Amino acid sequence: MSANAYLGAWPVVEALRGGADIVVTGRVTDTGLTLAPMIHTFGWQPDAWDLLAAGTVAGHTIECGAQCSGGNCLVDWDGIPDLANVGYPIVEAAADGTFEITKHPGTGGRISVAGVKEQLVYEMGNPAEYITPDGIADFTTIQLEQRGKDRVRVSGVRGRPATDMLKVSIGYFYGYKAVGTLVYAWPDAYRKAQAADRILRQRLADLGLKFEAVLTEFVGADATHGPLARASARLDQLPEVQLRIGVRSPDKGAVERFTREIAPLILNGPPSVTGFAGGRPKPEEIVAYWPALIDKGMVEPCVEVVQV
């Protein structure tokens, strides 16, 4: 259905060098959107691997909006000021590859070494090999320093040559799914949700329905922490638990029948159902995701500058 290669910064650099004020692009790496104007402004060369890695780290630091200026922050999260007016991070960069992360005065949130560190390890694989189309950044070389209120200096970034491959994200049709939910109230909320799951699964089996996957989650009990929650939480004291169950199948008819077996549980199953969120679910087409690699030589970016 779709196949999008992750391009790097250089096509954006070409557009900027051609005089573009606004660059509209297809799939470009998040880091490339910051690295490109740095390359353009400072005249960095394609083999300046340490500098390209520094620009990549700059892009990674701010790519998730306010996540490095207070959003989604574990460190003193309830002490971060005025998240309703959070300030988005700004990179103030230098030609030598050093840069500072800051935000506009008078905005909420907080720029700190701890917060920047959290963003740096976000979506992280091997920290010594952060691979992009533009080069490989070694995150273990990054040096962070608090330079004042809401200002962190980043330096010391080292890089290595880029690979000869691009990542490609492929989307393709993969059958049908449906997800339904029921909320059970105290007392015995968790046990009621478990019983409803058993009853529903038995009805599906009695109907001879076959599914590639059936997934049950007990939201409020163990949907997040799984066995760890079941081992330590007072599950018998939970005031409410949401049963969330989904199925996947290439057979749309089987998925449709599953959706008709959920609603009867409101009156024909365990008691104290307090919510039937969203009504009866509907079958949805699945667009599955397949990440792969493709040789860079098979992709030729095209840049067009339009005068408006």
Descriptive account of the structure:
- The chain is an alpha+beta fold and 308 residues long.
- It contains 8 helices and 13 strands.
- The chain has helices at residues 10-17, 30-42, 49-62, 113-120, 189-206, 227-232, 252-260, 265-268; strands spanning 2-5, 90-93, 99-102, 130-132, 135-138, 143-146, 152-155, 158-160, 165-185, 213-219, 240-249, 273-275, 284-295.
- Strands 1, 9, 10, 11, 12 and 13 form a 6-stranded antiparallel β-sheet that branches. It has a 4-stranded antiparallel β-sheet with strand order 2-3-7-6, with helices on one face.
- It is globular.
- The chain starts with a strand and ends in a 13-residue tail after the last strand.
Helices, strands, pairings?
Elements lengths: L1 E4 L4 H8 L12 H13 L6 H14 L27 E4 L5 E4 L10 H8 L9 E3 L2 E4 L4 E4 L5 E4 L2 E3 L4 E21 L3 H18 L6 E7 L7 H6 L7 E10 L2 H9 L4 H4 L4 E3 L8 E12 L13
Antiparallel strand pairs: 1-9, 2-3, 3-7, 4-5, 5-8, 6-7, 9-11, 9-12, 9-13, 10-11
Quickly describe the structure.
This protein has helices at about 10-15, 30-40, 50-60, 115-120, 190-205, 225-230, 250-260, 265-270, and strands at about 1-5, 90-95, 100, 130, 135-140, 145, 150-155, 160, 165-185, 215-220, 240-250, 275, 285-295. With about 300 residues, the protein is of the alpha+beta class.
